[in-house]
Amino acid sequence: MDAIQAYFDNLSSIFDQIMATQKESLFKGAEMLRDAVVEGHNLFAFGCSHAGLLALELYYRTGGMAVINPVRAPGLNLDIDPATMTSQMERLPEYGKIIVDNQPLGAGDVIIVHSVSGRNTVTVDVAIRAREKGAKVIALTNMQTTTRVSSRHPSGKNLYEVADLVLDNCGCMGDGSLVIEGVAEKVAPTSTAVGAAMLNAMVAQAIELIVQSGIIPPVFISANVEGGDKHNAEMLAKYKDHIFYMD
Questions:
Q1: Which residues of the chain are under the pLDDT cut of 70?
Q2: CA distances to 43, 59, 214, 245 from 207, in Å
Q3: What pTM was estimated for this model as a whole?
């Protein structure tokens, strides 16, 4: 088997499925982001362990919106050794509530919460607490996986059941996408590659909608092109009331 070709074929098939089944939801998510920005509210993104990579992908990003704030907490972002602690910590009861209560997140804001399984306590707590504070929750998950695993949250609910909008990354059960002869486990996860594309597409659509609303969108350009530093400094200054990762 040509694993390289097979992996890219899988990604292509997944993107086709997303365009067939998720495009309407992506538009709705873009409208939610647009509304928050136009109405002067704030944007956040959260995930645990590898799911948190997409929260990092969205902030302080060339071509992205300056006002997307990553929600980071000790022990959840692959920032500790042994790495297995992250799996333990994302199951801690009440930790998600503590995280949200220490963020400037409130009514009218939007938070993107990413989890492939959507089952762990911290992720569900973050979504529940955010909604209790009046924020809207966009969940990015894997419906094949999350509908087949039990919740670890006391409510018995998974992420998709406590969100305002659900985006399905259309991946395989457990995220591995390839079977290689002689290997018991599936390899080649798709959630990061696909999730990054989905969220960047949704943000791009939100930026277009913001322009249509008559507002100059808060977009970064590369700091490695001429004028990049000046432009980005202006964005940070103009939208400082909605940017919390510079504190």
A1: none
A2: 13, 14, 11, 20
A3: 0.96
